Amino acid sequence: MNVGRTVRRRTVALLAAGATALACPVPTASAAPAAAYPDPLPVTGDVVVHDPAATRLKDGTYVVYSTHGGLEARTSRDGRHWERAGSAFTTLPAWWRSYSTESDPWAPEIVHRKGRYWLYYAVSSFGSNHSAIGLATSSSGRPGTWTDHGEIFASGGSDPYNAIDPGIVEGGGRLWMSFGSYWTGIRMVELDDRTGRPLPSAPVHHLATRPDAPYAVEAPYVVRRGGHYYLFVSYDRCCAGVESTYNIRVGRSTSPTGPYTGRDGRPMTQGGGDLLLAAHGKYLGPGGQSVLRDRGRDVLVHHYYDAEDQGTPKLGLTPLSWSADGWPVPAR
Fold first, then answer.
1. Virtual CA dihedral for 77, 74, 282, 216, nearest 10 degrees?
2. What phi and psi, each to the nearest 5 degrees, are found at residue 21?
3. Is it the case that residue 226 has pLDDT exceeding 50?
4. If residue 274 lies in a helix (H) or strand (E), which one and from where to where?
5. What angle do CA 29, 32, 34 make, to 5 degrees?
6. Which of 253, 268, 75 is nearest to 169 (CA)?
7. Cβ–Cβ under 8 Å, residues 221 and 178
8. C-alpha distances in Å from residue 117, one per residue of 114, 147, 159, 242
9. Minimal CA–CA distance to 69: which of 19, 20, 29?
């Protein structure tokens, strides 16, 4: 069942208020010592978000889009103090109701390509893989300026995957979209570089799953660095406040379509991947991650649940460094 992002439909109503900064260290989602992972950098303002995606706009303003409310937006001039700035969509596209009775979009992804910003997002019905990924574009990337281009990829019925949680990566002159949640795990499809839509008859590649039902892996995000592609995923349970057990794993491959493995060589299609972030201190259940490349820095952008604030989901920004053998490491 689509437990992860879909359970958010209930808890995401709690999200209507916040954000955080684009350069911070983060927590984890189980019982780890407080010193095991770095904390997020201090942030102020509107910091309550879920499934954040961030970019730095051409004028230097940071923007974070997140699940709920027409894709809520927060902006910041310094990456520390955040203010609510409306939503991506002021008018909700009518086609959303085919997948969500609440017309409630989830898990955005924002990229800048060919002089425009492209915004991918998911719309789904609770507890099913009756889901679709949509695409919108904007010349500025600012809230309220997006033109929706409808659904580009969908799942349902007998499909062995769930079309939510899109993530975009370019490599070798080709454009790819990872996606997936529970069901049989994480998938990838090649996109048309000109339109941002899947190529006709493009095969759906399998990147990761877990050997145990309900195959609790979601929120894929692929980063290309050097000669490798790095697949970040969220394991376990989200959207349960202080009971959340989300944690972030990573594997790598020399090809965008895999096979992805952890340091020990175990394939991510067999539950492999290295633990990158898990809960510590008040920072519970980090996940829903993406990676922002900002002026030579890599920043893991994610949410966590604040144990000192009734499990409220908040924005975490964790700088990433890279080990000598080429693996991401949360920076202190």
1. -130
2. -115, 165
3. yes
4. strand 274-277
5. 105
6. 253
7. yes
8. 8, 10, 30, 35
9. 19
pLDDT at 23 over 90: no
> Domains in the chain, ordered, with CATH?
4-330 (2.115.10.20)
List, in order, residues 6 or more apart from 124 with CB less than 8 Å away.
2, 5, 6, 99, 100, 106, 130, 131, 132, 162, 163, 164
- Residue (of 217, 220, 232) closest to 328 by Cα position: 232
Q: Is this structure's pTM higher than 0.85?
A: yes
Question: Given CA atoms 10, 67, 221, 250 in this order, what sign does their dihedral have?
Answer: negative
Mean pLDDT lowest for which of 2-6, 40-44, 123-127?
Answer: 2-6
C-alpha distance across the termini of the chain, in Å: 37
If you compute the radius of gyration of the chain from its CA atoms, what whole number of angstroms results? 18
Would you list the DSSP string of 35-103?
TSSPPPPP-EES---SS-EEEE-TTS-EEEEESSTTTEEEEESSSSEEEEEEES-SS--GGGGGT-TT-
Angle at 93 between CA 290 and CA 163, to 5 degrees: 45
Active site residues: 51, 218
Predicted confidence (pLDDT) at residue 110 exceeds the cutoff of 50: yes
Show the tokens assigned to 15.
């999200």
* Mean pLDDT on 1-5: 38
Strands 81-87 and 44-45: parallel
Residue 160 three-state SS: coil
C-alpha torsion sign, points 84, 16, 72, 235: positive
Model pLDDT, residue 35: 54
For residue 306, the SS3 value is: strand
Mean local confidence (pLDDT), 172-192: 96
Residue 228 has what pLDDT? Answer: 98
